[in-house]
Amino acid sequence: MKVKTILVSQPEPKMENSPYSRLIEKEKVKVDFRPFIHVEGVDAKGVRQQKIDLSKYSAIILTSRNSVDHFFRIAEEMRFKVPDTMKYFCQSEAVAFYLQKYVVYRKRKIYVGKRNFPELLPLFKKYKDEVYLLPSSDVLKPAIPETLEQSGINWTRGIFYKTVISDLSDLRDVYYDILVFFSPAGIESLLKNFPDFKQNNTRIAVFGNSTIQAATDAGLRIDIQAPTPETPSMTMALQKYINDVNKK
C-alpha cells in the first residue's frame, strides 16, 4: 500500500529546512507532528522530599536540555544562587551549548562528552573528588547509573521532571499510513490512549533498540526501523520505504 500520510510522535522541528521538509517536498507526502509524551517539572517541595540540598554539590551532570532547564528552574524556586565555582559535566556539545542560556560559558568550568553518556567516564575519574548531582527524569537509561557506579564518584540522582503521557483522544478517528516512534514511552502512550488499537494496514516505524523492543513486546508489527548502516536516520529510513512501496 502506498504511503500518503505520516504521524511523527515528536514536536515539529523548529529548523526551516529540516530533513522532514525535504521528505515532504521530495515524496509528496503529508507529515504531521504530535508529541505522544511531554515533560512536567517536579516542584521544589518534591525535590526537597528527595532530601536534596543544592548547596551540597560541587558538580552537576547534565544529560539533556530538559535537565538543564529543570536544574535552573529548581535552583530559582529554592532561591539558590548557583556558585561560579560549580562544575558542569555535559553529555554532548549540544547540551553544553544550551547551557549558555543560563551561564556565561567562558567563565564556567564545563566538561563535555562526545555523544554517549559512557564517554564521560574518563572525566568522572579525573574529577573523582567532586560531589555530583544528576538532575533527571523519572525515566533513566540504564547506561547512566551503570557508568556512574563504574566511575566510583560520589553522586546523587534527583528527579526534577517527569515524562507524562499526552492526551491524544482527538486522534481517535484519524488514520495515518505510518506512525513514527522514538522511545518506549511513545509506544506506551499509543496503547494507553488507544487500548483497542488495531494495527491493520498502519505501518510502524521505530528508532533505537529500546523502542524496537517495546513495540515487539506490545505485539506491534515493525515495518521500518532505524538506525541501520544503510539508513542511519529516521527520515532516511522513511524515504527508502516510501520509495520502495510508492513505486509499485
TL;DR of this structure?
The chain has 248 residues and is an alpha/beta fold.
Topology, element by element:
Layout: E1 5-8, H1 19-27, E2 30-33, E3 37-41, H2 44-48, E4 59-62, H3 65-77, E5 87-90, H4 93-98, E6 109-112, H5 121-126, E7 131-137, H6 143-151, E8 154-165, E9 178-181, H7 184-193, E10 203-207, H8 209-217, E11 222-226, H9 234-246
Parallel strand pairs: 1-2, 1-9, 4-5, 4-7, 5-6, 7-8, 9-10, 10-11
Antiparallel strand pairs: 3-8
Description:
This protein has 248 residues and is an alpha/beta fold. The chain has two domains: 5-36 and 167-246, 3-Layer(aba) Sandwich (Rossmann fold); 40-163, Rossmann fold (3-Layer(aba) Sandwich), CATH 3.40.50.10090. Helix content is 32%, strand content 23%. The chain is built from nine helices and eleven strands. The strands form two sheets. A six-stranded mixed beta sheet has the order 3-8-7-4-5-6. The chain has a five-stranded parallel beta sheet with strand order 2-1-9-10-11. The longest helix is centred in the N-terminal third of the chain and has 13 residues, at 65-77. The chain is elongated, with a radius of gyration of 21 Å. The termini are close together.
Tags for this entry?
alpha/beta, Rossmann fold, 32% helix, 248 residues, six-stranded mixed beta sheet, single chain
Count the E strands: 11
Strand content: 15-25%
Structural class call reads: alpha/beta
> Strands of the largest sheet, in order across it?
3-8-7-4-5-6
CATH class of the largest domain: Alpha Beta
Order of helices and strands: EHEEHEHEHEHEHEEHEHEH
Mean pLDDT: 94
What gross morphology would you assign? elongated
Q: Give the second-level CATH assignment, the architecture of the largest domain.
A: 3-Layer(aba) Sandwich
Radius of gyration from the alpha-carbon trace, in angstroms: 21 Å
Provide the helix percentage: 25-40%
Total individual domains: 2
End-to-end Cα distance: 9 Å
Biggest sheet layout: 6 strands, mixed
List the uncertain runs. none
Q: Total helix count? A: 9
Here the CATH topology of the largest domain equals Rossmann fold
